[in-house]
Design brief:
The chain is 39% helix and 23% strand. With 400 residues, it is an alpha/beta fold. The radius of gyration is 23 Å and the shape is globular. The structure holds S-adenosylmethionine.
């Protein structure tokens, strides 16, 4: 591959990324590089236009707001590491840069017939997610904000969690392209549903992605309270249903399944619902993991595992890890790209792991099934989720 061709392409990318008319850019890396997805977009902070660079390394998102020489140096550094693709949306054109497996660049520039107005005011709202410091009717209605726009002291952690969750969801993919109907989000084991109320509000009102929310919980009292809150918000696209997760029948296949700290096997029930519906996105923060713990405690450990199994707390932690690994493996086998990442800052909760899954096609199912079966055999366990799967998948991964 002539080095000059790559160097010219990188220079094109550089100029596009530092251009004044940048609307949004997404750079993706694959393979062994730790940073997988980097987005750049203009933001206005205290009256100054800056470029916000958000990079997601598979665990966390890092954000920098830069301009001038600092921006140029950061962009040069970004482009010095090989990347797979770059999409730049600018006011006057769209540029797509793609590198083949052998590293050959392909650059496609499409001129626009009409120049797109750079709507910084709109971008400003998007980038700050749910802002504080200015009165927001939604945050006030759910009891998080005072009349003058301050977050209440005892709600500050929840507010931070809400913003982190919205960021995790919106960083996953272009939500606008997911569905031609309003996006159907089902929150299983919704409890008081703060995070999904906020997600629904943010997507509908701030991001312009029409969506409907159904919350499902077996606790009638919570469901009544949630429906009262939805009525107070005058929302016709939110409703809460008293049902067990297993028994719930959605009105149409959900696009996004959320299950945050749904207890024990309730997480498996939610993941099974997602798999049956082929939901495009899944966000699941598992909670307690009793099902596998019982199997581990009863089983006779192999000599190489005996030391870990001796102490209850170590056995429990291992059980949590095996449970979530097997869940992630099942999702991968079912055609999901899965990331197991940090949910919120660890100081908020010890239950801090999030399984984020995005439906794509998979091409190495045989290897995944082999790995899955090997892990089960190593510890002599079978996850509950396996018993809830569609027959054709269960038949492929069953070992007994
Ligand atoms: C720990 S709370 C989490 C609530 C909320 N998702 C959050 O993150 O704040 C778990 C919720 O799941 C509900 N739940 C547990 N198992 C369930 C099941 N099988 N079907 C429906 N709801 C369930 C409980 O009633 C409870 O409200």
């Amino acid at each position: 591959m002539p080095e000059t061709e790559v160097a010219t392409t990188v220079q094109v990318a550089f100029e596009k990324l530092i251009a004044a008319d940048l609307v949004q850019a997404v750079l993706k890396r694959g393979g062994a590089n730790s940073v997988e997805r980097i987005t750049l977009r203009p933001v206005e902070i205290k009256g100054r236009k800056l470029i916000q660079i958000s990079s997601f390394d598979g665990r966390k998102t890092f954000v920098k707001n830069l301009i001038g020489p600092e921006l140029e140096s950061e962009v040069r550094e970004l482009l010095s590491v090989p990347f797979r693709s770059l999409f730049v949306n600018a006011a006057s054109d769209e540029t797509q840069i793609q590198f083949s497996k052998k590293g050959k660049p392909l650059v496609v520039v499409k001129k626009r017939s009409q120049v797109v107005e750079l709507d910084l005011a709109h971008d400003r709202t998007i980038n700050r997610l749910l802002p504080e410091g200015e009165p927001d009717p939604f945050l006030q209605t759910i009891g998080m904000m005072t009349a003058d726009g301050r977050i209440k002291a005892d709600r500050r952690r929840k507010f931070q969690q809400i913003n982190e969750f919205i960021k995790l969801v919106t960083d996953t993919t272009d939500l606008k392209s997911l569905s031609i109907e309003p996006l159907l989000i089902v929150d299983f084991g919704c409890g008081n549903a703060y995070l999904t109320f906020a997600l629904h509000y943010y997507l509908n009102e701030k991001l312009g992605v029409p969506c409907e929310l159904i919350g499902v919980d077996q606790n009638q009292e919570l469901i009544d309270r949630d429906n009262a809150k939805a009525a107070e918000l005058k929302s016709e696209t939110i409703r809460f249903v008293n049902a067990s997760i297993n028994a719930f029948q959605p009105p149409r296949p959900p696009d996004m399944i959320v299950a945050l700290h749904a207890c024990d096997t309730a997480t498996d029930a939610a993941l099974a619902q997602a798999i049956h519906a082929q939901a495009k996105l899944i966000f699941s923060a598992p909670c307690c993991h009793h099902h596998l713990q019982v199997q581990l405690a009863k089983g006779k450990p192999a000599t190489e595992h005996a030391a870990i199994m001796r102490d209850g707390i170590l056995r429990e932690r291992l059980g949590d890890i095996i449970t979530d690994t097997l869940r992630a493996m099942i999702l991968r086998i079912c055609g999901y790209k899965v990331e197991v990442i940090e949910f919120t800052s660890p100081e908020h909760t010890a239950k801090n792991l999030l399984i984020r899954a995005h439906k794509v096609s998979v091409d190495n199912v045989a290897t995944l099934i082999e790995e899955y079966k090997a892990l089960k055999a190593t510890f002599g366990v079978t996850p509950y989720l396996e018993s809830l799967l569609p027959e054709e998948i269960a038949n492929q991964i069953r070992t007994d």
